[in-house]
Amino acid sequence: MRIRVSIGTLAKMRILNTKMYIEPTTAYILQYSEHGCLASCAFCAQSHRNSIPKDYLSRVIWPVVDLDKVLNALKHSRFSRVCIETVLKMGFLEELVEIVKEIRKATSIPISTAVVPIPSDKLRRLQHEGVDMLGVGLDVATPQIFERVAKPYTWSTYIKFIERSVEIFGRNNVVVHLIIGLGESISDAVKILKKIYTLGAKVALFRYVPLHHIKKPSHDWQDYSEVYRYRVIQLVNKMLEYGYDIEQYLEFEDNRVKQLKRMPKDIDVTEVVLTSGCPGCNRPFYNESPRGPIFNYPSRDLAKRDEMKIVNEFRAFGIEL
Ligand code: SF4
């Protein structure tokens, strides 16, 4: 069976010889579909409707590899998780179950998979075969953006799917993907973050990579106001993950955060900027060039190195840490 694997994962597996700035801690697999995903999401390189080469997802290249080769490499690897990203195509669920079964036969590494809404019996089947964390590609913050970017299914189908997934996988074992930069306001982002945590799921934040930036280096694309907005949303996400009532800590005015009243004692600023998602998922430079600005820090060491810069980014948004 042919699958796609992120270039960093292949480098760490020594299947491909390429420079790695930071090693991925998760092995990232993407289902293969020659003509891409049948969904029409306007922001996604995998969508059949976008004329981007199908070996891209976000700004990462995903070469096609034989599954057997990857299974063999996984037996000898040091990944803390395997993640299988799905695409909509005929028989994608049956193929997904097959991939999960083969991985589980080869290794005991925890497995995540990221899916669109699927029936509950299929969720249970995936869990039975070894998936312990489920990613849900809601991607957008509001029903209006959902319509505008032509997501498949409906907004309420996704919300109900998150509820069903939490019932099956348990609280904190469902991770909703949310892309920042698709036209949502900070209030929109805060509102959907609160909703997702209320449902018992967590959030993995992604920064939007415009399709026209995918094939060229993005070092010339540095909108720092975007970094500041992203930092605020990362802070809200971390507080909600820790169970804090954000209104006790942040003061909102209109559509912005006016000030941080106080920082929760157990949250460190370098933790706030780390890649969010399943345990062990670091997605190195998935949304940004290693030259920066770095939106999701893939390692604590890198975040520690940039600590003062990060504090200044928060300050620029009126947040004194
Ligand atoms: S958070 Fe990471 S490991 Fe989890 S489903 Fe999303 S991409 Fe996969």
UniProtKB/TrEMBL annotation:
Record GO terms (molecular function): catalytic activity; iron-sulfur cluster binding; metal ion binding
Keywords, ordered alphabetically: Iron, Iron-sulfur, Metal-binding, S-adenosyl-L-methionine
Taxonomic lineage: Archaea, Thermoproteota, Thermoprotei, Desulfurococcales, Desulfurococcaceae
UniProt keyword Phosphoprotein present: no
Name the record gives this protein: Radical SAM protein
Stored SMART domains: Elp3 (SM00729)
Domain Radical SAM core residues, every copy: 21-245
Pfam families xref list: Radical_SAM (PF04055)
InterPro entries: Aldolase_TIM (IPR013785), Elp3/MiaA/NifB-like_rSAM (IPR006638), rSAM (IPR007197), rSAM_sf (IPR058240)
UniProt KW Metal-binding keyword: yes
SUPFAM superfamilies referenced in this protein's UniProt entry, alphabetically: Radical SAM enzymes
CDD domains documented for this protein: Radical_SAM
Species annotation: Ignisphaera aggregans
